[in-house]
UniProtKB/TrEMBL annotation:
The keyword Hydrolase applies. This is Polygalacturonase. Belongs to the glycosyl hydrolase 28 family. It holds the Pfam family Glyco_hydro_28. Keywords: Glycosidase, Hydrolase. The keyword Hydrolase applies.
Amino acid sequence: MKHESDSALSQFPPNLTRRRLLQGLSAAGLSTGLGGSLLQPVQAAQTAQTDPWQQADAIVRRLRQPLQFRRADYLITAYGARPCQLKKITAWISFEEQALTETPVDDAADCYAAIRQAIETCHREGGGRVLIPAGNWFCAGPVVLLSNVHLHLQAGAHLYFSHQPEDYARHGEVDCGGNGKLTVSRWQSNDCLNYSPMIYARNQENIALTGEDWTAVLHGQGGVAFNEAGDCWWTWKGKLKTINAVGQSSVPNYKAGKPSENAVNPLNAESLRQIAPALGEEMQMLIQGQGDKWRADANYLPALSEAGVPLEKRIFGKGHFLRPPMIQLIGCRKVLLEGYEVRDTPFWQHHPVACTDIVIRKVHAKSHGPNSDGFDPEACNYVLVEDCTFDSGDDCIAIKAGKNRDTQYGPSQNIVIQHCTMQSGHGAVTLGSEMAGGIQHVYARHLLFENMHWKTNPLNTAIRLKTNLNRGGYLRHFYVKDVRIPNGVQTSPSFYTSLPGSPIQSKTVATAAGAVVTFDCDYTPVSDNVRIRPPVVEDIHISGIRVGNVDTGKGSYSCYQAIVILGPVASDYNGPAPVPPVPAVQGVTIQDCDFGSPVATASPLYLYNVKDLQLKGVTIGGKAFNGRFSG
């Protein structure tokens, strides 16, 4: 099927005209173009107090108010749900490891319709609680939450979602013909019509997803094969970009030449002019870059954003390879996520977009597959993350705020992260990389980055910023205190490829892994053709980090380097003259920290385009560091 704008629009059913589609997308709080905002961001709270942690306390008080639901229960078995039998299979459980696991039998009873009917009835009758009892359940389609509905998994409830991609292109609200019935979604911070997430809500209010304890499991089956070739959701990741990765050097069942998100997809247009005829030739060539790698799905969607292609023409789904997040909530207000375990997700584990007043508490986010970020709040206002454990194949927490021109929801702001534990992952607390709309007023405190898998699948870095001259945006008013890292972070360096002619030579700066604090303003620059938005990074305060050493067999070390700050690289800019100012990272204070013993004892700090980094009472390798540092 050829992916062209006219044929795509003709696939919408007769009762859904273009005008009605645009109205529906607008009502959903999603931009129908790129010329403005349909959902105004709430103004950021003022931080005039001398102690910024008073503002963190105020955010916590606001979000501690419990949600209220009508006292009525809706048991899914009353609507026809039946438990399923399981069989044992060998499946992928991480990038490189397979193990014997359980999955529903081939003729398992599907409880999709029963869960949907229970939720819709509960919503229609004024709200209440939809109950999934103990037992094994199979769902071949998305669970769609509605206002005033509390979906609760009792202890021992194990909900297995179908691992067949086509089951998430059957029930969406937009009929896209051969691409399937798709869902309004976001993929890596770009709007699109795509496979539905396993659990989804859009423009709903007062909703909860909870479990009685961590025996209540939501299982994405990301590593279970869906065809005879042995491919699974994770195979679609395709080629990896990190150089010298530890425990993540291959993708499950992927070999060069297989379809993936970063392989050219012949269904995508051969030229942007086919779908954006008003696009000027100079901009077209900038967006497409050299060759045709821009036609790979993971590059094609950002190209559509840069070209100003509206949402209703950004059609993916069947025939494409953009994996959906496990749990995605768009434009929702008053949300509680609490008390369950989520496991083996196809893509990001939790992805709230443009949500206000959202709490995630006592959740075990456990997925070691590609892009298995634990919690990715995007363009959200007032967020509390507490008492959670993250064991991830990517960032544990990654705060995001739009990418390319999809910034209509504004910044992510007023976020508190506290009393959480992090195990494997790329970054424990990460800002970016998709942050074009900006990130501000973020508070992280009282955290344990345990890194229990340090020998085989280590935490890459602890506090992490990722952006570049494509993603741009800003990070400001970011505060961190009281973090324990008893087993350090990765003790070898990992890298990203630099652009030709860059002053940052490839394989020289450990921005992908190896430092405790990593600010990377040149994040994987070869991935982005358009590099015209210098980021701003300022007003960051980190204190009370305590890093322990581990016996690596070659010595007792805590990390490769203590601090790596790679500011924006001006030579990456490729837009029209004159080159805009490319500011240094500034206003960063790190104090009262002990970083343990780095491997790179001669160069424990790396700084580039950094102005006046202040170190106060900092110990690295037993040596005291105090003063102002620039690079």
